[in-house]
Design brief:
The complex is a heterodimer of chains A (522) and B (500). Chain A is mainly alpha-helical. Chain A is 74% helix and 3% strand. Classes of the chains: A mainly alpha (522), B mainly alpha (500).
Chain lengths: 522, 500
């Protein structure tokens, strides 16, 4: 496979093509007829997925550091260039994006009935932005992609969203903007500081990483700005209040992409930029204490609030706050297992929460209500739906053998050495997750079938199965055999840990870390 | 590099080529319209003729710029440097766009007095004198030529009481501001014994600023504060912008502001570079006040025109941030941001003028609800404008703000950029609802939009502006280099700008 891909020069053009293809796809989509729009979108997103799949073989686990780097001057006099590259962390995020995108298009097939051309054009633009965010190696370029993804999502929520969509859309936009604009100032200051020290004006990621010594006492401020931008995006408690609104009001595809990918831009930002740029600040005792505390509050608070939601979509939305709390804990514990686990949760949360939103959307299309109390006992009416919902919910809870378990287990294992107490508290989050999801499951599909309106629900159609089955396969595959994914992320994680941990620190963390990949193998 | 002897009649004529061409052309158009000033046809002829005048003057400007004309020795009366050319180009751009946008507007509003167009040309000539002045007297003359023409334009809709109010307010406040400016000039002259900007700067260098010059500086800043509508000298702006015919509002918000900023930068960097410790805090204060007050009050507006008026106060604040560094990078940022802001603001007022009737005072957010369904191109264009004013990546407005931040941070100042971005977030609170209204809310009465139509000339101008906003948003390289290079030549006397 690798040699086949090499023979067509795959590595040279693939990253550019992944960014360009969706944008090129917008042209025939807008020129074509309204009813063809979804077909064009499906073809383009599927092609994008098939093309990106080759990266799995090209991004080799043996090689550390960024691969397929390409550098084209953009605004030369300001040291800005179109600089992209990919490593194990980027790889999994890009693949997650390209997997979820065609599924989201399929899920919108009958859900989106107005202004279809505009909707699918925005979806494709969003795809470009998302892929760009994960492969950008220039701070300016990253910032542009980081902001550009806002616009399509803003429109998707605002035009095709629920009753309260205007409020949700502007709240989502402004929250993100506050953080990102402060990050913009921080980026300019960062680069200026480094320019004053080295004499070279460059927004290159590597250039910044190589000259962090120039930052001096501005580092805490810069870290605060970066961390705020990403904390809002994740979102970390107390910056999470935009999330329930946006996720609930967005159409199904919007919720899937928001939860599945856009939240991960925040955690990715921490892993790629905020922590490696300012390791002394980020990993200092005070900052660690704050971040771990906020992560714990997120885990527990998200789970407790999810438990009392009458609206199933809101329940899923709050469960994201809880899951992302685990990711943050894993990042700040800073061991091989915990960071690998955090990455693993990022992936599996994309699968399971994406699937949950899809299932909720399918239910909503049938009954036009999302209140849990309107359902009950529908397992007898829609057995296939109920089966898949159960599998997905169990994966979200973290049942061993399904994908959710791997990440949470690794995070808890890896964090225990660093923060035993915090890990203990976080473990209760897993129990709460079981509580709210199983309870919701019970009220939705089990219990008595007492609402006559539910008696004639239709089970999943072929198209809906086509959306869900790939996700279920992913859930089971990642749960049973995560080793190939962990292997591909390992060099990038190791590099991250080397950047983050001071040189003088005992290498035990790394030593211990080499193991769990093997341990988790079934 | 061509040298011009400014003391010879030929030299000074060539140095003023764009201004002379424009003024002559304005007089010719004035003669033409004195015979033909009755029908719609006449108005159209005057309009296109004036547009040709802008192009001719632009050609003269290009001749100076391309040949890199510099003065033989010290510049007397007018500057001969790319900073002047760039500022003049922005003024001409603003005039050209205003004329194209006015063609359909004047017909629709039955403002059929074609003297409108020569007035635009004369105002533009004034702007170019103002932006290129190397002497306080020329500066004042330019200011007055510009202002008098714009007073008349503001009140051009005689039938409309608000237009008359706008003209009167603008005239009174303008006279007041001119008084401050003139007094400041007099005191500066008193302290230095010269009206030449650079020579005065040389006189003031290397010693503490004399009290008389300090007073002069303060009065000059007040005068300019009025002209650029910076808080707390902004009180006139909302009513004047609101009451004037919409294309004139666009012209005032861009051309007048651009010329005043160019002159302000030149005075501060050529005459008072040694006093930057005195004027930098004042500029910073004005900038912060303008950004905060402008954005907060704009948030409370329901009428789009008034919202844009207050937002232009906020943008004056952003521009003042770019003036603050007292550096040539800052001057370059002023030029780049002026171009970005001018393009976007002209286009915004252009779209607005298509949306309403009778001065557009009454076009509110609710009135444009659902516009995207019936007028997708206008909605898309206006959305790009709003995003550019907000400073969103992918638009020219973002590049402008980025340049400003770079210039200020290069001086080690972080507070101003932080306030700039935070107030930009506030501005999202009133720019985004425009997009939301057009795209996300249902139309109250879709038939309302049947009358929304752009004249071909206006549509062409707007399409070009939008294209420029997007293209420069992605490929600003060449333009930024040009702005940077233009600003490099600002001080010609060999007076170092405080070592920066």
């Amino acid at each position: 496979m690798t040699s086949l891909l090499e023979s067509i020069g795959y590595g040279q053009w693939i990253l550019h093509l992944l960014v360009l293809l969706p944008l090129l796809g917008v042209v025939p989509l807008l020129l074509g007829a309204e009813r063809n729009a979804k077909w064009v979108a499906l073809v383009v997103t599927t092609a994008e997925f098939l093309l990106s799949a080759g990266l799995w073989w090209v991004v080799t686990p043996q090689q550390t550091g960024m691969q397929l780097i390409s550098d084209t001057p953009w605004i030369a006099s300001w040291g800005i260039s179109y600089r992209v590259g990919i490593d194990g962390i980027s790889l999994v995020m890009v693949l997650l994006t390209t997997v979820l995108m065609p599924l989201s298009v399929l899920a919108s097939w009958h859900y989106i009935t107005t202004k279809e051309r505009a909707f699918y054009a925005l979806m494709l633009t969003l795809l470009t932005g998302l892929v760009g965010v994960f492969i950008a190696l220039d701070l300016f370029l990253f910032y542009v992609f980081f902001e550009v993804v806002l616009i399509p999502m803003y429109f998707i929520i605002g035009i095709w969203g629920g009753a309260n969509r205007l409020y949700a859309a502007i709240k989502f936009f402004i929250y993100t903007l506050v953080g990102s604009l402060l990050m913009l100032v921080a980026i300019v200051v960062l680069v200026w500081k480094i320019q004053s020290a080295t004499g070279e004006l460059s927004f290159s990621y590597q250039h910044v990483l190589d000259n962090l010594g120039a930052l001096g006492n501005t580092a805490p401020w810069l870290f605060t700005a970066f961390a705020l931008a990403f904390a809002i995006k994740v979102p970390i408690f107390p910056f999470h209040t935009w999330l329930p609104d946006a996720h609930v009001e967005a159409p199904t595809a919007g919720s899937v992409l928001l939860a599945g990918i856009m939240l991960k831009i925040g955690t990715y930002g921490f892993l790629r930029f905020a922590v490696p740029f300012f390791p002394q600040v980020a990993m200092s005792t005070e900052v660690s204490a704050i971040m771990v505390t906020l992560a714990l509050i997120g885990i527990i608070y998200g789970a407790l609030v999810a438990m009392v939601q009458p609206d199933i979509k809101k329940l899923v939305a709050y469960s994201s706050v809880s899951h992302l709390g685990f990711v943050m804990l894993g990042i700040w514990a800073g061991t091989m297992q915990s960071v690998q686990g955090a990455l693993m949760i990022m992936i599996s949360h994309g699968f399971s929460t994406g699937a949950l939103f899809l299932l909720v959307g399918m239910l909503y299309e049938r009954r036009h209500t999302r209140l849990i109390e309107d359902y009950g006992g529908i397992a007898r009416v829609v057995p296939v739906f109920s089966l898949i919902l159960t599998v997905v919910a169990l994966s979200s809870i973290g049942l061993p053998g399904l994908n959710g378990f791997i990440g949470e287990f690794l995070v808890l294992l890896g964090s225990f050495t660093a923060y035993p107490w915090a890990t203990g508290i976080a473990t209760t989050g897993v129990i709460f997750a079981a509580a709210y999801l199983l309870w919701a499951l019970q009220r939705l599909i089990f219990n008595r079938l007492d609402n006559p309106e539910n008696e004639h629900l239709s089970d999943l159609s072929g198209r809906e199965l086509a959306v869900l089955v790939p996700l279920v396969i992913g859930i089971v595959w990642l749960g049973l055999y995560p080793a190939p994914v962990l292997q591909r992320m390992e060099p990038a994680t190791r590099r991250y840990l080397e950047a983050v941990r001071p040189r003088s620190a005992p290498p035990e963390n790394l030593r211990v870390g080499a193991g769990p990949v093997a341990e988790v193998r079934p | 590099m061509t040298q011009l002897d400014l003391s010879s009649p030929l030299g000074i004529t060539l140095a003023l080529l764009p201004e002379i061409l424009l003024t002559t052309w304005a007089i010719i158009v004035l003669l033409v319209v004195s015979w033909r000033h009755e029908t719609v046809e006449d108005s159209r002829v005057a309009g296109w003729l004036s547009f040709a005048g802008v192009l001719v003057s632009g050609a003269g400007l290009a001749a100076l710029w391309v040949n890199q004309v510099v003065p033989d020795g010290l510049a007397q009366m007018v500057a001969l440097d790319p900073f002047r050319y760039a500022a003049s180009a922005i003024a001409l751009l603003s005039a050209g766009a205003t004329i194209l946008l006015s063609l359909g507007y004047l017909e629709r509003e039955h403002l059929l007095a074609p003297e409108y167009y020569p007035l635009v040309l004369l105002a533009t000539a004034g702007m170019m004198f103002l932006a290129g002045a190397e002497d306080f007297i020329v500066l004042f003359l330019g200011l007055e030529v510009m202002s008098v023409a714009v007073y008349v334009l503001a009140g051009y809709n005689r039938a409309n009481a608000f237009s008359a109010e706008a003209a009167l307010k603008y005239f009174l406040i303008g006279a007041f501001a001119s008084g401050f400016l003139l007094y400041g000039i007099a005191l500066t002259y008193g302290a230095t014994g010269t009206t030449n900007l650079s020579i005065a700067g040389a006189q003031l260098a290397g010693r503490p600023l004399p009290l008389m010059a300090a007073l002069g500086l303060g009065l000059l800043l007040i005068g300019f504060g009025f002209k650029v509508a910076a808080v707390p000298f902004h009180m006139w702006a909302p009513d004047v912008y609101d009451g004037s015919p919409t294309p004139v509002t666009g012209f005032m918000a861009t051309g007048v502001k651009a010329a005043a900023f160019a002159a302000l930068v030149r005075v501060l960097l050529e005459t008072f570079p040694s006093a930057d410790r005195i004027w930098q805090p004042i500029i910073a204060g004005l900038a912060i006040a303008s950004m905060v007050v402008g954005n907060l009050i704009a948030l409370a507006q329901r009428s789009l025109k008034r919202m844009l008026a207050y937002s232009s106060i906020a943008h004056a604040g952003y521009l003042l941030v770019a003036v603050w560094p007292a550096s040539r990078t800052g001057a370059g940022a002023v030029l780049a941001y002026l171009l970005a802001y001018s393009l976007t603001t002209l286009a915004s007022f252009g779209f607005l003028s298509a949306l309403g009737r009778g001065g557009e005072r009454e076009v509110t957010y609710d009135d444009i609800a659902g516009l995207a369904a019936t007028r997708p191109w206008i909605a898309a264009g206006l959305s790009v404008c709003m995003l550019s004013l907000l400073g969103f990546p992918g638009t020219f407005g973002f590049i402008g703000k980025w340049y400003i931040m770079t210039a200020v941070i290069a001086e080690g100042q972080v507070i101003l950029p932080v306030i700039l971005v935070l107030t930009s977030v506030i501005s999202a609170g009133y720019y985004l609802p425009v997009i939301m209204a057009m795209y996300m809310r249902p139309a109250a009465a879709p038939a309302r939009f049947d009358k929304v139509r752009l004249a071909p000339a206006a549509a062409g101008a707007l399409a070009l502006s939008i294209a420029a906003i997007v293209v420069f948003g992605f490929w600003p390289g060449g333009l930024l280099d040009l702005a940077g290079r233009s600003a490099q030549t600002l001080t010609q006397t060999g007076m170092p700008v405080a070592g920066r």
